[in-house]
Write a structure and sequence with these properties.
- The structure is a single chain.
- The chain is α+β, with helices and mostly antiparallel strands.
- It folds into 2 domains: about 100 residues, Nucleoside Triphosphate Pyrophosphohydrolase, CATH 3.90.79.20; about 130 residues, Nucleoside Triphosphate Pyrophosphohydrolase (Alpha-Beta Complex), CATH 3.90.79.
- It is built from 5 helices and 16 strands.
- The strands form 3 sheets. Strands 1, 2, 3, 4, 5, 6 and 7 form a 7-stranded mixed β-sheet that branches. Strands 11, 12, 13, 14, 15 and 16 form a 6-stranded mixed β-sheet that branches. A 3-stranded antiparallel β-sheet has the order 8-9-10, with no helix packed on it.
- The two termini are about 15 Å apart.
């Protein structure tokens, strides 16, 4: 399996392979998501921006960020979440990275400081405003995700956005001025009304939906009764590790946090956090 390596490539050169991306969806056909770049650029696509994003094995990969998801004969559009569930790890890494670059390119066509059009800087992943001299780089939004436990029980909640029946861990964005651990305490208190202790870092995972970094924690119950934040949480319950509801996808850090604790309580092999 080819390895994915992000790199800033010169989009003014010819050749290579291309991804077509629009609104966290990728164009694909029976051969996959990579198309001969020169062929794809001749298909009268509404290209918003083009970026050289890296190498997949020995092949140079470029991204065509499109204005709209237009149809091409023999092709379909597939969402990034589907690729997370169904594709191999290296392909998903490539698509996750490309999606973030595409969204960044779409959102930084104009300077946030003065509103003037921006331009790509050769050899650097940045958009430059000549009017005010600001460089706009891709941004990552830090988020915490936490599994709260109480002996053989885990606290799981569901959002109205989840598929029917599925429960997951609590998560939230880190706010200005707070640490990730402070975010854990605040989000748990806000979303389910509980206090936590013994917060322990478990790992992190890039979460390109659209541009988060999930920082994973395990925390223990310290007090309180469940009071859900109704505009965010549909339901929250304590579940015994032997009787869990439908859970998130196995490639997610949420599932890793749950599986890791279940393995500890039941004496099972420890899972591996997906890269």
């Amino acid at each position: 399996m080819p390895e994915w390596q992000p790199k800033v490539l010169d989009a003014s050169t010819s050749g290579g392979w291309a991804l077509a991306h629009c609104k966290q969806q990728f164009l694909s056909d029976s051969n996959g998501v990579l198309f001969p770049r020169e062929w794809l650029k001749k298909q009268d696509l509404p290209v918003l921006a083009e970026h050289g994003v890296g190498h997949f094995g020995d092949d140079a990969i470029y991204l065509l960020e499109l204005v709209d998801c237009i149809e091409l004969p023999g092709c379909v559009w597939q969402g990034l979440r589907r690729f997370m569930l169904e594709s191999d790890a290296e392909t998903y890494k490539m698509l996750g990275y490309a999606s973030q670059i595409g969204i960044w390119a779409r959102e930084h066509r104009y300077c946030g400081g003065c509103g003037a059009p921006t331009q790509q800087i050769p050899g650097e992943r940045a958009m430059y405003c000549a009017d005010c001299g600001i460089r706009h780089y891709p941004r990552i939004s830090p988020s915490m995700i936490v599994l709260l436990t109480r002996g053989d029980e885990v606290l799981l909640a569901r959002s109205p956005r989840y598929v029917p029946g599925m429960y997951s861990t609590l998560a939230g964005f880190v706010e200005p001025g707070e640490s990730a651990e402070q975010c854990v305490r605040r989000e748990v208190r806000e979303e389910v009304g509980l206090e936590v202790c013994n917060i322990r870092y478990m790992g992190s995972q890039c979460w390109p939906f659209p541009h988060s970094m999930m920082i994973g924690f395990h925390a223990e119950y310290a007090g309180g009764d469940i009071v859900i934040q109704e505009d965010e949480i549909e339901d929250a319950q304590w579940f015994d590790v032997r009787e869990l509801p439908p859970l998130p996808a196995s490639k997610s850090i949420a599932r890793y946090l749950i599986d890791s604790y279940v393995a500890t309580r039941l004496g099972l092999p420890q899972p591996v956090l997906p890269d």
